[in-house]
Write a structure and sequence with these properties.
The complex is a heterodimer of chains A (113) and B (113). Chain A is 0% helix and 50% strand. Chain A is mainly beta. In chain A, a hairpin with a 7-residue loop joins strand 9 (88-95) and strand 10 (103-104). Chain B has 113 residues and is mainly β. Chain B is built from no helices and 11 strands. In chain B, strands 2, 4, 5, 9, 10 and 11 form a 6-stranded mixed sheet that branches. Chain B has a 5-stranded antiparallel sheet with strand order 1-3-8-7-6, with no helix packed on it. In chain B, a hairpin with a 6-residue loop joins strand 4 and strand 5 (45-51). The N and C termini of chain B lie far apart (40 Å). Classes of the chains: A mainly beta (113), B mainly beta (113). The interface between A and B is medium-sized, with 23 and 23 residues.
Chain lengths: 113, 113
């Protein structure tokens, strides 16, 4: 399968714990996006990488959230000191330079107890 | 403030009829608009893109129109089938072509056999 993959698919954690999610984009894609989606809402932009550079970060993203894409390939999203309000589906997407469509992964569903 | 509005109520139509979904936006001047399909528990899947200088785009049973004066896009599925049942999201590029998109809340379509 050459699509976008995310790991884990599901994560249940206790409030206050740290969690890290991984995204592997389509190999030739240089752009990578993270979104958060809650029930009944559309995906909400969190951050965006072009190669290894993080070009934009949503103001909605508190300092408990950090994302990296160290070699311009896979990316990680870390949430520190999780809160119940962080419970959501975290989606990763990638795209190439020559076209505008984004290819989404299956998402990581986070539940914070 | 900037807004993207999609009908939050579910749309129920009979199999074989044409489904029409609406996306309205305010205070944006998007370079392009996209439509995605999302099934429960899965990431969105790209369907169509229409640019600001295009009035209409077609792909098989799908048709999208884009009226930048009305700030509205219509998404049509002709000869609808139960397999078309899903949530449909519109997304606007607000970055002047740098692929940062903002999503609407989506409209859930149910095609009744």
């Amino acid at each position: 399968d050459t699509g976008v993959s995310q790991d884990p698919r599901h994560k249940i954690t206790k409030r206050g714990q740290n969690v890290t999610f991984r995204c592997d984009p389509i190999s030739e894609h240089n752009r990578l996006y993270w979104y958060r989606q809650t029930l009944g809402q559309g995906p909400e932009f969190l951050t965006y990488f072009q190669n290894e550079a993080q070009l934009e970060k949503s103001r909605l993203l508190s300092d408990r959230f950090s994302a990296e894409r160290p070699k311009g390939s896979f990316s990680t999203l870390e949430i520190q000191r999780t809160e119940q309000g962080d419970s959501a589906m975290y989606l990763c997407a990638s795209s190439g330079t020559d076209y505008n469509e984004q290819f989404f992964g299956p998402g990581t569903r986070l539940t914070v107890l | 403030s900037q807004k993207i509005e999609q009908n939050s109520e579910a749309l129920n139509i009979q199999e074989g009829k044409t489904a029409t979904l609406t996306c309205n936006y305010t205070n944006y001047s998007p370079a392009y608009l996209q439509w995605y399909r999302q099934d429960p528990g899965r990431g969105p899947v790209f369907l169509l893109l229409i640019r600001e200088n295009e009035k209409e785009k077609r792909k098989e049973r799908l048709k999208v129109t884009f009226d930048t004066t009305l700030k509205q896009s219509l998404f049509h599925i002709t000869a609808s089938q139960p397999a078309d049942s899903a949530t449909y999201l519109c997304a606007l590029d607000i970055s002047g072509g740098y692929q940062k998109v903002t999503f609407g809340t989506g409209t859930k379509l149910q095609v009744i056999p």
